[in-house]
Design a protein that fits this description.
Number of helices: 6
Structural class: alpha/beta
Shape: globular
Strand order of the largest sheet: 2-1-3-6-7
Radius of gyration: 17 Å
Largest sheet: 5 strands, parallel
Oligomer: single chain
CATH superfamily: Flavodoxin domain
Strand content: 15-25%
Helix content: 25-40%
Distance between the termini: 12 Å
Number of domains: 1
Order of helices and strands: EHEHEHEEEHHEH
CATH topology: Rossmann fold
């Protein structure tokens, strides 16, 4: 297998979490197979995650840490994002990272459009894997919530800037996992990381 340039983003705002464990597990497994991996922890980043009064013509200058992560996105061939689902969405700091960092001229082009009229993506040719944890059972996520967060992340965030396909790994019951579940989850992530998938 040709080595890949992989960005692993631990999207949990806490220092210790399942998301961090999964991110580190994936990164270690991928490195063990010879892939070039950059691992970033959201909890270690300090930035203003409020887009505020900005707009696409007058947005806040990126802090150095945001500029570095954006360069990591541009460098990558494959993105791995680990995150919990909170209140049906992404953690505020992770959403703020996206709001601040995914800017026109770097991640999408409002001056050029796709065939259906959307701004042209500028990070095309990349793939992604999202490892999502929640307390919502999988059947409820599919039937009642209609996978709203999955569709948002896949289509309206990552797909919008060019990451396709985006695959998902979903673990439910994350707050109080049953005995043995975390070990099985970690083993699954290690296999995915070894395959750089």
């Amino acid at each position: 297998m040709q080595p890949k340039k992989i960005l692993v983003l631990d999207g949990h705002p806490a220092d210790s979490s399942l998301s961090r464990t999964f991110a580190e597990t994936y990164a270690d497994a991928a490195r063990g197979k010879g892939h070039d991996v950059r691992l970033v922890h959201l909890s270690e980043m300090q930035f203003d995650f409020d887009f505020g009064q900005g707009n696409y013509h007058d947005f806040k200058p990126l802090e150095p840490v945001l500029e570095q992560v954006l360069q990591d996105f541009e460098w990558s061939e494959h993105l791995v994002l680990t995150t919990p689902m909170w209140w049906g969405g992404l953690p505020a700091k992770l959403k703020g990272l996206i709001d601040r960092m995914f800017i026109p001229g770097r991640t999408f082009d409002t001056r050029n459009t796709t065939k259906i009229g959307l701004p042209a993506p500028m990070l095309s040719g990349r793939t992604a894997r999202v490892i999502l944890t929640s307390d919502t059972p999988g059947w409820f996520m599919r039937l009642i919530y209609r996978q709203a967060l999955i569709r948002q992340v896949r289509d309206q965030i990552l797909g919008f800037v060019g990451f396709k396909p985006t695959r998902f790994t979903y673990f439910a019951g994350a707050s109080y996992p049953k005995p043995g579940h975390v070990d099985r989850w970690v083993s699954k992530i290690a296999k995915i990381g070894a395959a750089a998938a």
